[in-house]
Amino acid sequence: MGLLSFDLSTFFTMGTLLAIVFGTAAGLFFGVIPGLGAVIGIAMLLPLTYTMEPLQSILMLVALYQAAEYGGSISAIVLGVPGTAAAVAATLDGNAMAKQGSPGRAMGFSLTASTIGGLVGAIILMTLTVPLSTLTYNFADPEYFLLGLLGLVCIASIGSEDMFKSFISVLLGLLLSMVGIDSFTGVERLTFGNVNLMEGVTMIALIVGLFAISEVMSMLQENLNKRYVTDTKRTKVAITWKDFQYVRKNIFKGSVLGAIIGIIPGLGASAAAWLAYTEAKRSSKTPETFGQGEPNGIATPESANNAAVGGALVPLLTLGIPGSAATAVILGAFMIHGIQPGPLVFKEDPNLMNGIFWGFFLAAIMMYIFGKYTTPWWARLLTIPNYTLIPIVLFVSLIGAFVARTNTFDVWLALIIGIIAFLMRKLDFSLPALVLAFILGPLIEEGLRRSLMLSSGSYSIFFTRGYSLVILSLILLVLGSTIYRKLKSRAIVQNV
Amino acid sequence: MMSYKRLTYISLFLCMVLGISVLIHVMTISSAQVKNTMGAHFFPQVVSVLLLIFCLLSFWNTAKKGDGKVELRHTGHLLFTILLVSLFLSLWHAIGGFYILSFIFLAVLIYSYNQTPYSLNKVIKSIVASLVITVVVYMIFGYFLNITF
Known about the structure:
The structure holds 2 protein chains of 2 kinds. Chain A is mostly helical.
């Protein structure tokens, strides 16, 4: 079934619309509060998806992801503290404009750019996904093994300043993915006799522990009585038509750049925002105005970080390879409903895919509506002191870990993983690399073992297929460019 | 404050211990070999060996770099939170009464985290906040989603 022949009446149900509305509201909440963000929001809402239809759950999480990227700019503009990493670029000019007495205008630029970025991301998602899925329909086990490896190499190369620790994080994630019963032989691995580990480490427990509980521990390091003071006057979100014309070219550039960057595993919304910002500054006739309240300094990174959301969904939907930590957690929603994203799902369940595409459009529009009329309320949320916020986040995280199997073992597991993850963060290990490896581990192992079954144990199967050779070249390219980058930066440091 | 290098060495050592433990563990797996495929032990072995190699590389890389400090502030809060969560989970598992335990758990946490001096106002705030949160959780999870804790 094509995109344009999709029956929209099946899509516009109360459940679907409520899911998008709830996801948008949740996204604004998690985006506004510094330190939370899209990944934690998705991790905390993931347990709710057990009780929802597949399309509703995915759209709720996608809407959350989109809205969180805009939400991060609210605290960036009002307080000068970015709510999410992707909002750092917008802080420079956004907060400067707010200090000049126009926070509402700054948020207007951000919201308009975010919405257009989201819509462009949706268009790119629609236009690239279908042809790519047709291409990947020809992929077999060797290609899936190598694609999984490519995803891991990308995220390990970019995931942390310390490349070796990134790779160690990947390997730890792979080890975690092997806990449980081996699907080929039925043999127990790494369960140590614990019956609760027979089905493996629960993904929800892992994600809640890695992102939510470890973040709670990081927040405990801060001033617990911290309460942001916001100026809630002049926060009416609006820009004029003339304002829009001034920034429209950079919004378009930022959107396209952001969507393309979002496709590359490991980069994500933060990289997209910064690259778009630097490009806008570089190509500007008045680069000295950037950092002083320049509208393009707000609009360009914000359009890029929202467009990157659509871009990040491209490898997820076509290959089943998440492009970022957030999409890795969204992949969890697919897996909860027994759906493996990839070329087959386009054939077997086209309604789901078309529903996601249309839902993405709707989520961007919903974000605009919510943002236009409710931004001052979300700005007020910043006045919740940490001593109340932290227990709420911790408590909801513990519940989330329980809900998956209604088993307190998972809550204990989340707690232990959270403590370890907190220490790992302090030592520059990469948690996104770990979770990505955990999710891709079964795909990689099955691809490898099935390929060797097909080739009677010969590794030449990975070198004799055209698609495999292309993917292998990409892996070598990523590794080579990472090593070159590290050597170059080391040479610069030594020369200094 | 603790030495970044020392903590890194400790973490890498623990990773190596994990890698070796996995290697020893999978050696005991009697691999039910299917013809022309690797057994259940192969992939864990590969990953464990790679883990050991990367840990050694990271040791070398860390030794070359300068040292830094890892700040662990408010460790009292951290330990208190971990202990309280453990107590909450143990009691919940042993005696049930999830909502009552949750109310007490939240009230204690909110009260403890609030650094202002003791006052009746502080106690009331903690109780009211935890009551509201518990009721909201009940409405969402217990009532609408029908989840039994």
